[in-house]
Amino acid sequence: MSAAPSPERRRAYELLEAVRRGSRADEAIERVGGGLDARGRAFLTELGYGTIRWKGLLDHRLDGLLEKGIGSLPGPVVSVLETGAYQLLFMDSVPAFAAVDESVALAREALPARHRGWAPGLVNGVLRNLERTRDRPGLPDPESDLAAHLAIRWSHPRWLVERWLERWGREPTERLLARDNAPPSVHLAVQPGRIDRETALDRLVAEGIEARPHPLAPGAIILEGGISPERLPGWEEGWFWVQDAGAQLVVDVADVPHEGLVLDACSAPGAKLAGLATRGASGVLALDVDHRRLRRVAENVDRLGLAGVRLVAGDARAVPTGAVFALILVDAPCSGTGVLARRPDARWRRRPGDPDRFARYQREILDRLADRVEPGGTLVYATCTLEPEENQDVVGAFLDEHEGFRLDPVGDRIPDAVRQGAFLATRPWEHDLDGMFAVRLRREE
After folding, report:
1. Does the CA dihedral 299-302-305-308 come out positive or negative?
2. At a CB cut-off of 8 Å and minimum separation 6, what does 185 contact?
3. Where are the beta strands (DSSP E) in 345-401?
4. How far apart are CA 443 and CA 371, in angstroms?
5. Rounded to the nearest 5 degrees, what angle is found at the Cα of 331, between the Cα atoms of 288 and 56?
């Protein structure tokens, strides 16, 4: 039996605990993953993110092995059990004895002192029982309760599964749920003026790196093989940045003007800002309410050598300047249901009332920014959610209340496959893209 848990497993436990206390997984993994080599970081990412993705199914399996149910256990003990269960059920590279022994060692070393006396024995017994019953998942009958079956089978909140079933039916919903649980591919955006996509691909392939063009986004590269983007040739020279191809299409929708100021109203983490600044904008004001995340935007601006960009900490509902803008991009805070593959923890934070709650906030942002669009200028509204309350309904309400604006169809700025009427609307299960929505709103002259 291990005297101490491996560093990667200890870090995965710390990641789960940080998320349980309210941290975002992408930010927490940066804090806990320092000092690991590439192999250790890959193990941490698979174990930590995989456990978060499959939490619903893992908890269902563990619940059936606990006399009083998983809800009776302290959160830290649940985190240890979940990481052990994920190794047993999903990580074929980890022998069962190692998954159990390492989890027991984790319970002895990492748990708060008040749990260390009794928790290791419980962890040992529960995980050994799980290993013996691993082929008996005990899922609800889909014929009698399809939503419950899919929610547990694909580890999503039931309320979310129910709303997707009502809108799309079983087959598209199950395809979406499956994609949410597959580790997402990494997409790169190529910086115009530094290098073109074909040359970048040739350089990457020459270095033995698996990469290919994305078929729907003209500047996007799909990176294969699990290499860290920071290790790519040309990264320090600012050839590209990480950005899903669907988000790159939002910048295509914006159709950046070469004259007049541009406002990126909700800028962090800054990938769309990079797209705006490298497509001919004469000046971009990047605004975000989160000071900490804005510092990361600044780092990306420096690496990419973006000119004409000014970063300001502030609320999009109260722009700290009297300027008007030729283009305003509102990449609005949203429920994020289109990016659950990249943000697996978000599914567990969301609640049934969130689409309506975010919609009220989104409408307020658009209302406050309407007068900041110069006559003839464009307001682009975008989200990474699939929920109509935050997409079409917000746009409809805005147009009803602002007679000086009209819908400007995205037209041939984007491929037919991702157009839905006048909008950009990507479907993750169809397009191998994050779920993105974007619309152009033109202010009359």
Report:
1. positive
2. 222, 223, 224, 432
3. 373-383
4. 9
5. 100
Please pick, among 221, 326, 384, 425, the residue that the annotation labels catalytic. 384
Q: Considering the entire predicted model, what is its pTM?
A: 0.94
Fold for domain 245-443? Answer: Rossmann fold (3.40.50)
Q: What is the pLDDT of residue 445?
A: 83
Residue linked to tokens 């500047």: 219
What is the Cα–Cα distance from 226 to 312, expressed in whole angstroms? Answer: 34
Query: Judging by beta carbons within 10 Å of its beta carbon (0-12, 13-18, 19+), is residue 39 exposed, middle or buried?
Result: exposed
Q: Could you tell me the two tokens for 439?
A: 């619309």
7-132 maps to which CATH number? 1.10.940.10
Annotated catalytic residue 384: yes
Where exactly are the structural domains of the chain?
A: 7-132, 146-178, 186-242, 245-443
**CA within 13 Å, CB half, 373:** 30
For residue 225, which of 192, 285, 272, 185 has the smallest C-alpha distance? 185
Dig out the tokens for 305 from the structure: 């050598």
Does the structure show a pLDDT above 70 at 45?
yes
Provide mean pLDDT across the span 364-379: 97
- Token digits of residue 441: 């709103």
Q: Are strands 325-331 and 373-383 parallel, antiparallel or unpaired?
A: parallel
Q: Which residues contact 39 (CB under 8 A, 6 or more apart)?
A: none
What pairing do the DSSP bridges indicate for beta strands 211-213 and 186-190? unpaired
Element (H, E) at 298: helix 291-304
What superfamily in CATH does domain 186-242 come from?
Sun protein; domain 3 (3.30.70.1170)
